[in-house]
Amino acid sequence: MRQSEGHAVTQVPLLIDEPNGRKSGLTIILAHGAGAGMESGFMREMAEALSAGSLRVVRFEFPYMQQSGKTRSWSRPDPPAVLESTWLNVIEQVGKPRELVIGGKSMGGRIASMVADRAGVRGLVCLGYPFHPAGRPTTLRVAHLEKLATRTLICQGTRDTLGTREEIAGYTLSHAIRLVYLEDGDHSFKPRKSSGRTYPQNFQEAVTAISEFCGSL
Fold first, then answer.
1. Which pLDDT score is estimated for 110?
2. Hey, which of 1, 36, 82, 147 has its CA 20 to 30 A from 30?
């Protein structure tokens, strides 16, 4: 069951998918990627799939995406400080940090990884982590991942152009991070037809990995 919550100006509007099964006591908060908001197909399908089990799923949008929805024109993401403060605000708004798993798609998951230790959350889930910008494999976004203490799951397509399996093998990452590779998946987990894999297969593998990870926390 999904409900929409509108709050005072100081709070962030949330979309909440309540669990259909027995409640685990955990809430997972998912932030969107740079180019599509919390109601994109990927975000909606992921929230529905995870809430079909025992997880309560919360989605939100960063200020620039909220504004884009009002003006119906895309704008650049907010500065990192604004993205991080929005994440911290949402964590405080939703509930006790030790009952929260945070993360999201691409940029949403990356910013979550930058506040996870500071916020003291239970876990972190990144869906297609952008280890580097497209076409710039030497501009790495991994420094903070070397010492990350929060238990973390990263679901990554093996041919993700923002971090392939071969590239990631050369990075130094914290032992708190577990990587699950989705065979032949791109940044959105989609495989090529020639691979013999299907998108639903990769998507379901990610959902299963997330559910099992949250169940182990």
1. 97
2. 147
The whole-chain average pLDDT of the chain stands at 91
What token pair was written down for 15? 């979309």
pLDDT of residue 5 exceeding 50: no
Q: How far apart are CA 15 and CA 19, in angstroms?
A: 13
Asked if residue 4 has pLDDT above 50, the reply is: no
DSSP readout, 203-217?
A: HHHHHHHHHHHHHH-
pLDDT value at 46 more than 90: yes
Rounded CA separation 183/57 (Å): 26
pLDDT for 25 equals 83
Radius of gyration for the alpha carbons in the chain, expressed in angstroms and rounded? 16
Give 3-state DSSP helix, strand, coil % of the chain, rounded to 5. Answer: 35, 20, 45
